[in-house]
Amino acid sequence: SLGCAHTRARRRPRPHPVFGSVPGVLRLSPSRSTPRAMFASFAARATAATPRRAPTSRETRRSAPGNNRNRARSVRAGSLREDLFGAGSPSIPPKRLRSKVSIVGTGQVGLACAYSMINQGTARELVLHDVPSKLDALEAEVEDLRHGAEFVQQISIKATCDFKDTANSDIVIIPAGARQREGESRLDLVARNVAIFESIVPPIAAASPDAVLLILTNPCDVMTHVATHISGFAPNKVIGTGTALDTSRFRALLAEYLDVDSGSVHGMVLGEHGDSSVAVWSQCTVGGVRLMDVHPGIGTESAEEGLKNIHADVVNAAGRIIQRKGYTNWALGLTVTNIAKCILRDERHVLPLSVPAFGKHGIDVDVRLSLPAMLGSEGVLEVLNMPLTETEQEAIRRSAATLAEVQSKIVFGRQ
Q1: Which terminus in the chain has less CB density within 10 A, N or C?
Q2: 3-class DSSP state of 356
Q3: Which of 159, 170, 27, 47 is nearest to 105 (CA)?
Q4: Exposed, middle or buried: residue 43 (CB in 10 Å: 0-12, 13-18, 19+)?
Q5: pLDDT per residue over 364-401, tens digit each?
């Protein structure tokens, strides 16, 4: 009827339940559109809605009559990246998304750190720095690492002997230094390594004034003090790995003795990273159970035989390994990667690290030694006040006195 036709003519289309009445959204009528008409409508809408940029000179040449038979030759002559993605520079993520870590000193320890960080996707840029005489071998190491790019997260790796390439690093890891000789105490290394630090720390600090410096060079606590003095950085931005590795060794040995997973063992080794370190048995727990509550003699001569030697095994571990293979590297590489992740991701984990110890547990000298520290993007954020027994506090004070004596003999400016 006319009334029905008039009503149909005035009826407005109902809004789509998802898209509503959005201009430009294609509406198809199944009763009136063939498949060919549908695709033609899509193409017309897409052409009208998508602005086309002006063709490049290469595209103009390729579209000219008679040039199709030479297309393969023109593609090879041009930029493959431009052919794949179009003209223009690649988009670069903002700096906050591009973490950069530099490693200065690429011996066995430095390469172990690099390998561990690449495997765990710790950073987006990794710069490996060493002296010019080692650059050729270092470039070969980097080429070898790049060949495994398919199996790890995307990362840029560069070998260099120029400190300018380390510029704007978030973290600069420094394992550079004289290698510890068989039977040599870590404290005997000081004179040789101070001269090395005086040559490398100033250009590192100038290139990356906002970086966190992570010191691995032995003796770690003393060299962290030296790096702070030379760099002029705030104390919280210069960190030593300290007893982080000793703590990992301690937990691993105790877990092996108790036949439990090391992740269920919580305990720390504090003080000097070396002979005078202190195993904090009073705060050691397994599965939340404090060992001193169930075994009061732990950490003393009255402890059961198997527990007496665990801390001694931790102290002597590096010497045993160096005697048999010449160096330690793999566990330290994993330790450094864990510390770097805490900094880059602002994880605020508590780790035993070499930090300023003045005023803690009765220490009255300006030294660096390992205490439980909260670690974040600005370096050390807080140092925990861990309750210790009087025996443990006395041991830490003796450790501080040992380090202070070594520091008092340091002479700067010899290089």
Answers
A1: N
A2: strand
A3: 159
A4: exposed
A5: 999 999 999 999 999 999 999 999 999 999 999 999 99
Kindly report whether the peptide bond that precedes residue 175 is cis, defined as omega within 30 degrees of 0: no
Which tokens sit at 28?
Answer: 């198809």
- Report how far residue 328's alpha carbon sits from residue 318's, in angstroms, rounded to the nearest whole number: 7
> What is the per-residue burial (b if ≥16 Cβ within 10 Å, else e) of 256-283?
eebeeeeeebbbbbbbbbbebbbbbbbb
pLDDT tens track for 53-92:
555 555 544 445 445 444 444 444 567 877 777 776 666 5
Backbone angles phi, psi at 327, to 5 degrees: -170, 165
- Whether 231 and 213 have beta carbons less than 8 Å apart is answered as yes
Look up the pTM and report it: 0.78
Q: Which contiguous run of DSSP H or E holds residue 235?
A: none
CA distances from 324 to 87, 113, 340 (A): 57, 21, 29
CB proximity list for 224: less than 8 A, separation 6 or greater: 215, 238, 239, 240, 242, 354, 368
Q: Is the dihedral angle over the CA atoms 141, 145, 146, 148 positive or is it negative?
A: positive
- Going by their DSSP bridges, the two strands 100-104 and 171-174 should be labelled as parallel
At 44, list the tokens: 């017309």
Helix axes 220-231, 190-207, angle to 10 degrees: 40
Catalytic choice (273, 295, 349, 361) = 273
Specify the pLDDT at position 80.
Answer: 81
What local confidence, expressed as pLDDT, does residue 28 receive?
A: 47
Q: β-pairing, 212-215 with 238-240?
A: parallel
Q: How far does the chain reach from its first CA to its final CA, in angstroms? A: 106
Lookup: tokens for 367: 């030294």
Q: How far apart are CA 302 and CA 317, in angstroms?
A: 24
Is the per-residue pLDDT at 174 higher than 80? yes
Token pair in block for residue 238: 């210069």
Q: How far apart are CA 137 and CA 120, in angstroms?
A: 24
- 136 φ, ψ (degrees, to nearest 5): -60, -45
Query: How far, rounded to the nearest angstrom, does the alpha carbon of residue 253 sit from its chain's CA centroid?
Result: 26
311 is catalytic: no
